Amino acid sequence: MPTPVPTVLVLDAEPLPRLGRLTGRARIVHTDAAxxxxxxxxxxxxxxxxxxxxxxxxxxPGVGPRPRWVHTASAGVDHLMCPSLAASGTVVTxxxxxxxxxxxxxxxxxxxxxxxxxxxxLDLQRERTWRHRETRRLAGTRACVVGSGPIGxxxxxxxxxxxxxxxxxxxxxxxxxxxxxxxxxxMSRADWVIAAAPLTEQTRGMFDIRCFGVMxxxxxxxxxxxxxxxxxxxxxxxxxKRWIAGAAxxxxxxEPLAPGSPLWRVPGLIVCPPQSGGTGGGRAENGVxxxxxxxxWAAGRPLVNVVDKQRGYVPGR
Amino acid sequence: MPTPVPTVLVLDAEPLPRLGRLTGRARIVHTDAAxxxxxxxxxxxxxxxxxxxxxxxxxxPGVGPRPRWVHTASAGVDHLMCPSLAASGTVVTxxxxxxxxxxxxxxxxxxxxxxxxxxxxLDLQRERTWRHRETRRLAGTRACVVGSGPIGxxxxxxxxxxxxxxxxxxxxxxxxxxxxxxxxxxMSRADWVIAAAPLTEQTRGMFDIRCFGVMxxxxxxxxxxxxxxxxxxxxxxxxxKRWIAGAAxxxxxxEPLAPGSPLWRVPGLIVCPPQSGGTGGGRAENGVxxxxxxxxWAAGRPLVNVVDKQRGYVPGR
Lengths: 317, 317
Prior knowledge:
The structure is a homodimer of 317-residue chains.
Chain A: E1 7-11, E2 27-31, H1 33-39, E3 45-48, H2 55-59, E4 69-72, H3 83-87, E5 91-93, H4 100-115, H5 118-126, E6 142-146, H6 150-161, E7 165-169, H7 183-189, E8 192-195, H8 209-214, E9 220-223, H9 232-240, E10 246-249, E11 269-271, H10 282-298
Parallel strand pairs in A: 1-2, 1-3, 3-4, 4-5, 6-7, 6-8, 8-9, 9-10, 10-11
């Protein structure tokens, strides 16, 4: 009797690259958010591609068996974690390794665009106005990167390659990484404060009005972590009062940002629909990663990128 | 009898930082372009700050003694070189060392902004439109930097730090630098072609329609060298016909670019009023550099950054 073919339930709206490689080795079943609860009991594996959805968190506590393994094609897992998933025997893995470099490049793009005043250059071109401006030298400026996971570390490495003096802040101090006790001091001297932390109970709302008050009036704040790290009203107030010089948000408390949101029009704020991790090859790379992980799982070998479900991220290194 | 205090004639419209340090050691006389010819005969040194002006080239061939030393606060010297200056005993020096890093950062800013589609992000924000887009990964793309002087080499180093595979092309091949014979092959494979060459008889108009035809349809062209390196009509045509994907010009054949120039509105072209070298500290750094060079000159020590007046740039290294 052949081994039964496991069922991989895929939560995604769009067709997926590379999963065809699993033909014959897995039964691929697609679902949207509405059909998730009904199909969960028959799935061995759940693959979450639509990582803007909270469908997993909503469907998980329901009735019936649950997949033994959940993989999310994202770095953060806050969109799917819930007490019943955390308490279960289900293994959760993430897409560590895919997003680090694109996110770091995106941060470098924002920092350089701000230093070189590129948004104003584009405005002046639209107005056909020739105006020489002095712009900032990036080398020698100071960055404080909050979040010492692989994304934060890659951002720090990229900024250092551009001769930015960069400090990395994590949950616990270790070699080359500052602890939370150094955060205020580092933020108070930084030209660039970059949020790249996971969303956990400790980090939710950590960038609040007090925090923006600590920064220099010439400082810029960039969030590529998760929207709820930031108290958005406090950021808007800090910008309006010129406590800080500017900001760029790649993630928001509510996504998509409503057309009526005041955030679209806050002076000094660049609104980037979430794409820091998006690259031409991103979805394909995610597909390749899942196929490799499936092969490990099917062979009974240990999975990689295993999330600590209590902490809410992949610990280590 | 005290040594006579030399006269430093300064061609610039704006007040200058740091020249006050020469008080008592030099007589500083300011002039605009119109007064230059009249004042040249009484000047020992000419300091050209307004390097967008052709006033030197126009005034030099006139009557009377000429300064023994001309320093320009720019990397290029094409704006002041003329046959009579080239044939004279006057030493010409430039601002080598000041512009390398700001220009390289500016190129990195443009390359990253294009890869991450930042101009479109700003457009979408203006329209309050939330749209996820896949963008390009910069790491692993290929650049061809044309011009192997200090600026070209610093651009290459900066792009390499961002994991861009970068080739440098110079007038003569040497270690780590390709010769002109490799240019077509390198351009045909490049994602980014960056012009950073001096303007000489050999380089004038080198980026012509043939050249844009060699590039990939996905390639972008960036000019931070001198405007006349590029046949602007050919670039506009190549963009209109989608022979290349986009371009950014920091310098132009005619500057300032007239409000009626069609270049303001060429699709895919970013127009940057010349500022790649401009940084907050730029003018002060130029002032410090001139003061140091003046001290060498006054002490009879050899000058640095001496331009080969036949070639039109500082040779070497």
